[in-house]
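Lecture 7 notes: from sequence to structure.
We start with the chain below.
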Amino acid sequence: MGSRLSNHMGRSAHQLIGPFLKKYHGTMATKIDPKLQGWFDGNGEALELIVEAELPRREVQMRLISDRHAIPMGIEGPSLKERDLLLQELEGFIKNKLSLKAKRLKAAGAVVVLATAEQTREILKHPLVKMIRPNRQLGGGGNP
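Predicted structure tokens for the same chain:
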């Protein structure tokens, strides 16, 4: 996976993940949407899930040009490419280590995956996982 996630501006995905390993908090139970808890505790069938990634925050500074309009002045934090590199790392883990189909949602900072409860427990071991929720739009089932 390291070669696929080659350096961007001199920083590899693993270097970008490092700070999150230090800040890693929460247990599997706190990273599962309460609506999934009964399913997660058993050996439920595969559901379509949204795996939200723990990504560095970006802050946009705005300048008010009128009572109703503002324009962006600048952005602080990691570039979109660096955020996407981290998201690719999570997607690659799901696809390559767990052999599951996954779809990266860049704007949402998440990955959609069809997984069983057992597979979900493995996904939760990755340090970039922030929260796992059911895919509300499709209501579970289906292909990512």
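Points to note: Residues 1-10, 20-26, 137-142 have pLDDT under 50 and may be disordered. Strands lie at 47-53, 59-64, 70-76, 102-105, 110-115, 129-134.
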